[in-house]
Amino acid sequence: MERRESTVMDFNGLISDEFQADLKKASDLIHENEQVRLLCHYDGDGTSAAIILTNALKRLGIKFHLSFVKALDGPSFNALIDHESSLIIISDAGSDQLRFLDRTDNIIVLDHHFYSDSGTKALNINVRKYGIDGTRDACGATMAFMMALELDGNNADLFPFLMSGILADRQDLGGLTGLNRSLRDLFVSRYRENHTLNLEGDSIINALVYSTDPFYKGITGNQENSSLLLKELNIDPAKKPADLSENEKRILGKRLAKALISQEVGIEALKTMEADVLNFPGMDFNSKELSSIIDGNTRLDSNGVVMQYFLGDKSVRAEMLDNWKIFKTRLIDYCYRSANQLYSLSHVNYFYAPESEMAGSIAGTLMLYLAPQNKPLVGFNVSTENTHVSSRGTRRMIQKGLNLSTVMKNASEEVGGSGGGHDIAAGAVIPKGKEKVFIEAVNRILKETWGGF
After folding, report:
1. For the whole model, what pTM was predicted?
2. Are 341 and 313 a contacting pair, CB within 8 Å?
3. Structural domain range at position 351
4. Given this model, what pLDDT does residue 105 score?
């Protein structure tokens, strides 16, 4: 991406004066530095944010050292920055974890998660501070994109990675709202958009076999059943999803809707069947594929591969796409297995995931498509030292008062761990061997604070 003459972004009432003033402070601080230490959350949203920020820094000629983080507890967080003299930018994490730090000077945080104000010296730019819902209206990539626009209005061409972060963080469910919607409306005219079946891949047969969002039980991961379905509907399996006729989309959509209904999914899952897909000039991937590729690589600890590719090294393209298929294959297998091995307490269902990086993806997929819709879901991954926890709920549960961020935080602290996140999706790290005590605490807290349906 070539450097162009800088332009000033006119937000024109898009955000509050306080929000823009804080972005301006951060921009001035960044411009004063020749090198930046960048810490980003490891998931699809955090990696999309990292792609935005590294490209913005690269264009300014500012050197950067990037690391991805999974958990920011006290010791690990301090160890990351203890000897840092460079400006530190923390993206898609950090607001609530600043309280763990021995020093908070020369730090910029760009976050959207729940947090408690710790009176830190850091420039803590969290959308919730400005009255914006960080669960629905702005994600980590949103914050990175706003920062990039403040640095230079030309960074508007990083919009595809804003969309990939929004999709990875599932903030598109039910349609974009708030700041996400405002940014989309501001820049979408530059791209070609079409409303279509939510399928991705180079052929319709692969799109069905590898479909995890939506996840069609008995079709996803099943080549034979997918082939039989297409044969019955007289659809060429080699056709690209984008090349399906309107009639083919209609008859296929009808059958896929029937499949989801038979799984007894909620309205949220049914809404994922169709999507507004954006096509980006000069990029081989549409918005859904871009998000899925980035997120899939992060779940295999291959964040570096997508970073290389989207910083300009096209030699890793084949590796990046292979990782995507490996992730999809594993996720499908793990989802089928975990769905058959769910445990249940009065107010929560739970399962054990084989890989920590996959626990969140499995929990999210199960909660939407394969698990009972009357209780939130918790996934455990037991490692050699700690157990990583991922939890998921539904929009309907949130409307009834569920807040998994509070549940994960309080339950984890009872067993000597730490946790937090969103009301609809949150995580924790707890000592190994405390899983039973933890899940019982989760169940008790849910009974006291949520009560169920």
Report:
1. 0.85
2. no
3. 341-449
4. 85
